[in-house]
Amino acid sequence: MPGQIKLLLVDDEEAYVNVLANRLRRRNMDVTKAYSGSEGIQALRAQDFDVAVLDLKMEDMDGIEVLKIFKKMEPRLKVIMLTGHGSAQAAREGLALGASGYLTKPCELEDLVDMIRKTASKEV
Amino acid sequence: MRGSLKELGVYYRNLTRNMVLLITFVSITPMILVSGLILFQFHTSFQEKVHAHLTTLVKKHKQNIDTFLKERLADIRQLARTFTFEELSNESFLQDRLATLQDEFGPVFVDLGVVNARGLQVAYAGPFKLGMALYSTADWFQRAMKSNAFISDVFLGLRGLPHFIVAVRENWRGDPWILRATIDFVAFNNLVEHIRIGETGFAFILNRNGEFQTKPFQEIVPGKGPYLELLRSDNSAGERPVSIGRMTGEAGVKNIFVASPLKEGDWLLVYQQKVSDAFSDFERSLRVTMVVLLLGLIAIVTTAFLLSRRMVGRIAKADREKHMMNEQVVETGKLASVGELAAGIAHEINNPVAIMVEEAGWIEDLLEEEDFKDGANLKEFRRALNQIRTQGKRCKEITHKLLSFARKTDERVQEFRIDEAIQEIVALSAQRAKYSNVTVKLNLSEDLPNVRLSQAELQQVLLNLINNALDAMEKQGGSLEISSREEEGILMIEVADNGPGIPAANLGRIFDPFFTTKPVGKGTGLGLSICYGIVKKLGGDIEVASTVGVGTTFRIKIPLEMIKAQGSLNGKGE
Questions:
Q1: Given an 8 Å threshold on Cβ–Cβ distance, is B362 in contact with A23?
Q2: How far apart are CA B269 and CA B224, in angstroms?
Q3: Percent of chain B residues past pLDDT 90, beyond the cut
Q4: Predicted ipTM > 0.90
Q5: Residue B368's closest chain A neighbor by CA?
Q6: With an 8 Å Cβ cutoff, is B347 touching chain A?
Q7: What is d(CA B485, CA B446) in angstroms, rounded to the nearest whole number?
Q8: Which of A101, A106, B50, B505 is deepest in the core (most CB within 10 A)?
């Protein structure tokens, strides 16, 4: 589909990834789900994405670490971070590492969609 | 608690009482002992002095009187030996002799008489008409005949006036005869009457029968008291020339007396004085001492009382503060552990809440499909889903509050923008401000350089100040203005409210740890002292200006050179 945003969703909360993927797909996005940091890295290796939505708190890998790897693998990839409240520190660290923005969980879907669309349309 | 407060009251009262007693006892005991000792010594020596003085006095007068009597006797004897019975029997001759004597000694000799062995006064010279008087039965005559010299007691005699007789016995042609002279009572009396000391001291002479030989200054009842005893005991031997004693007279008046035998124990010279008079000097010093002692006593008791009360007051205050501090330390500890627990729960709850909200959203998405468009309960579905989303948001707010409450201060130094840090913290408090009906105004300079310090710490300072302001304005609402600017190289952040203000009395203590005006359990009294500590650590200062009824402004001043970042920040990335 032309104009469709290719999105990679990385979060170890499977239920959250699933429901979010369903909703984003309805909003005209090509969503690939990854249930862990390593799955995300594999997915990125397999294909290109416009935007990645990355949870900063995952069981297998720290989101910041995943962000670093993403940026190394694909410097043009735009990353939006999802953080828990009180993790503003980590989010700022992520921004310094090249992330495009962050949202605190739980977030309004419309905010997320807005941020994804704006980020995708921006040229780096 | 109330019971223990009552117990504490009793405890402090007892403490005060014990301290008062102890201080009083310790101070008064030596004072009284020393005073008593000195008084006793003084009394003893004073008494000795008085006694010595009186003894000397009496002794001197005793000698005077004895000498007087002996001299009169010697005068008469001289006369009797110089002239014969015959010569003296001539009344005109005797008159001449009396005149000579009176010339020489004044009116001491009243008259002269020559009495023969049968007691007949054969010649008389003097103012009375006693010629040819018969003295054979007179006591003095009988006694004079037995010894060769005799001095009688004072008696009224034939003339009916008090007088006494000095008589000598001589022999003429084998028959004894007597030359007698009457001694003027007034002249003799003067010898004794002149002994007067103080107001009540006076002297008199008693004979063996306890009869007055002189006119006493005061009426006393001789024979009673110690005089009789002294009169009866034979002091003629002179073992005790002077005796001193005390007696209680009429109406309980205490008297001191000094007695000395006269006329070889026939008479007793007595000097008597009221003790209170004799010791008036001592009693005056005693009174002065007592007054001083009493004043000292009052001063000591007053001081002890005031001192103890003040000290116990301090102890009570210290106890209260210690008690409060203990409570607050426990409180702080409790808060910290509750905070950690809350943070854990909040984190765990966030994900399920996010999933529920998203699932509800998903259902909403699906309801958009044609299949459901005409469903009878579509409206109700939408309402229910909306409710789920609303309640999900509430959960989020709750967890966010819990997390911000429990957040530990991150001391890591990093580079950030002041205005953004302030905005972030204001956003955190926005909900509370809304509940408290407080409008928040921001007046942030965007030209401030980036800073390098612990953002979390700075935010904690601001959060504490904002929370305090919101607490203060909770009841009436108000406005809160937060501004930041640079002034001569100093970063200024002001948090100003128009709340009730801080009373001047508290203004100096608000940065003290554990100082709080909030009700027990509401404030730890740590907020502002933490702020103070953080700002000081950054090399800055925190000031407060407050007017009751107008509002309070906290001003944080940090020299920018202490915290300025070297480079510039990359921005937020948008």
A1: yes
A2: 16
A3: 11
A4: no
A5: A26
A6: yes
A7: 8
A8: A106
